[in-house]
Amino acid sequence: MTLVAGVDTSTQACKVVVRDAASGTLVREGRAPHPDGTEVAPAAWAAALEQAVAQAGGLDDVAAVAVGGQQHGMVCLDEDGEVVRDALLWNDTRSAGAAADLTRELGDGQAGRQAWADAVGLVPVASFTVTKLRWLAQAEPENAARTAAVCLPHDWLTWVLAGRPGLDALVTDRGDASGTGYWSAATGEYRPDLLERALGATPHLPRVLGPAEAAGTVAWAGSTGAVLGPGTGDNAAAALGLAAEPGDVVLSVGTSGVVSIVSETPAADPTGAVAGFADATGRFLPLVATLNAARVLDATARLLGADHEELSRLALSAPAGAGGLVLVPYLEGERTPDRPTSTGAVHGLTLATSTPAHLARAAVEGLLCGLADGLDAVRATGAEVRRVLLVGGGARSEAVRRIAPAVLGVPVLVPPPGEYVADGAARQAAWVLSGAAAPPEWPRPGTEVHEADPTPVVRERYAEVRDLTADRT
What we know:
The record marks 8 as: Important for activity. One of its GO terms (biological process) is xylulose catabolic process. This protein is an alpha/beta fold. It is built from 15 helices and 24 strands. Strands 1, 2, 3, 5, 13, 14 and 15 form a seven-stranded mixed β-sheet that branches. The protein is globular and about 65 Å long. The protein starts with a strand and ends in a 7-residue tail after the last helix. 56% of the residues are buried.
């Protein structure tokens, strides 16, 4: 049996799966936590990888490895390959002002947004790496001056697995590069002019590998010789792990909420709602992301003094629409819509709706309405939506699974809980190892199917309240 390993270096943890390269059968796995916060020392990712690999039985018998990782994180290295400062993660919103400045610099209002969409398929928001680099240049000019190379979390961990060779050995892939704000999925090229505009310099950038191009070999922690895949961003890895096809929407309810669709054509949305990302196979992955997703369920359960099972039971016991009670779940600001300093809001509170069940229902519906807005934005780019694959920690909620088709208005398939980012990385590793023209055909995960039964009044009421919210000054 030939084994391959997939790594998911996510916001919250490092997960490692070891699978049979031919069949995809899971052989063993491991996990280790990451520190909390939006600013993390990359050394913590390496330490977590070592723990997770040890728990998964090591890499000595593994023939190939690939890494999937949280997108957008800013990892700055000096000329000796040392980390300049702790990495700013995708959910760090301190660069919101920098995003607005960068957009205006290419034109006022719509003209600036259009210019960015045409250049790199996205409009700057605080999540993207390019805005974090502008923040660095303005807030920490000494660190900006020390920065000789910029990479992403998955790029850095791949480089660590390769034994930390020189900066020239840094590599990435289309999927992760497309989330930086200075690489175009449509053209397949970096935009050094935009990088220099942000940072005031043009540091070394990782070479962008093809979907199944080897990135070298492992030379790490006593393990040597395994082939390294290029890796990819977490969303592209999840789509690969789920074997998503054109027209399939992967809706992930995790730390962030993500609506992405596998597409044959690139997207360029001047509104900024949809980011024109690439996938891990050579196709494209137009994507909408929200800052608020599964943690909305956590917060509501905490507020009600309930566990998640009880929260789900309460939500399902209340009527659709929660009697007019609406929760707009901008608990951490919001990325889509771009309201980084917004707060959450509850509207429609009456004597009749002042019950735990109504609040639980409003929380689930508010979470799903935010994602349904994302689905509408993806459709507006011309993508044809066939079905939704519902994944992530939030998909474990029975209420989320059962209410989702009514809010989203399309069939919803729920694969069993799994580590689909790590699985996608493992599938990529098997692909690189095989040298084939396409990734291996591993069995698709079984799914729980929920047919669409739209309840439009829920979204109509949510839209009324959503537009009452605004950024705090």
